[in-house]
Amino acid sequence: MSMKNNKKTFNLENFNFDGWWIYEPENKNEFFLAPHLKDMMGLANQTVPYQLHWFLEKIHPDDQPIFLKAIESNSKEKHTIEYRILLKENQYLWVMCRIHREEHRISGIQTDITKQKELQLQLLRSNKELEQFAYVTSHDLQSPIRHIWTFSDLAKKYVKDQKIKEAEESIDKVIKTCAHIKNLVQDLLTYSRLGRDELHFSVVNPEDSINIALDILSEEINMKSAKISIENIPKSINANPEYFIDIFVNLISNSLKYSKKDIIPKIKIDCVKRMGKYHFSVQDNGIGIAAQEREIIFNIFKRSPSKKNNLIKGSGIGLSTVKKIVEMHGGEIRVDSELGKGSTFTFTLL
């Protein structure tokens, strides 16, 4: 059956779908694409007929089995599937396709559902974060609260027995534990705010932002006599000023926390521009990160073994905060590290 002689098919061109296709197994396995779909896929000037294997290659590998199963089904009832199709911009578009089988052909009408899919993914991520928040309230907060209870009880007992020195030590521990809870709650509030507030961009001088971050961390830097070098920083970028400072506060603070004992921390902040993107990096000479840890350190509340052993204090939220801020700016972040030889965190901005 030829498309040229098929009036019903021809009339489909007048409809505003996100692309329809018709597959004719008995006509050399030919695939016919709507003009709009051809344009979306960068094929507007091509007139040669397509075949099933060609169209299948344009579908995301993970979705190809779903598409093939629908094509090979003998059911004549209309049914709907979802898959990703490659566009001319080398990006995938999520579509919902209503498939109908007739005697000599199979037709599909696609609808763009990319935004809905993105919202679904955001919802899944939000649900996962809520589960992690629940873990913190049931574990990370309960543990220091138990410490406060214990130390307060001891302080009361020491005062009764007139053991003033011991009582003062217990009260000091209560104060330190309260400070830890305060920092944890503050980090939780900061992280939960990300994505809820409207993100305002402006022209930012990165070197000024880095210097503000260094001022915020000046006490920690001086305590460890850390050496900080800043190189190749651009004069201006487009970013949210407050969040851009937060990125460096968290990355520099992380380098200071994971510095080697009895070795002066050296932190190098650098930037290179490649393919229209700024690649900022924060490199240190610290303890490094084991290979199995690199996959999870950006997940909220994930701690390295040293943190779990209470050798290094922290909420486990800093790096996940950085990741979220970078992604809100349309960038990506990664870490390159070798255990015992330091780490380099690199993030991109447009």
Describe, in plain words, how this protein is organized in 3D.
Helix content is 44%, strand content 21%. It has 13 helices and 13 strands. The longest helix is centred in the middle third of the chain and has 30 residues. The protein is elongated, with a radius of gyration of 29 Å.
Q: How many H/I helical runs? A: 13
Spans where pLDDT lies below 50 across 5 or more residues: 1-16, 305-312
Helicity level, as a percent range?
40-55%
Strand order of the largest sheet: 3-2-1-6-5-4
Mean pLDDT across every amino acid position: 83
The portion of residues forming beta strands comes to 15-25%
Distance between the termini: 51 Å
Biggest sheet layout: 6 strands, antiparallel
The chain-level structural class is alpha+beta
Shape: elongated
Q: What would you report as the Rg, rounded to the nearest angstrom? A: 29 Å
Count of beta strands: 13
Order of helices and strands: HEEHEHHEEEHHHEHHEEHEEHHHEE
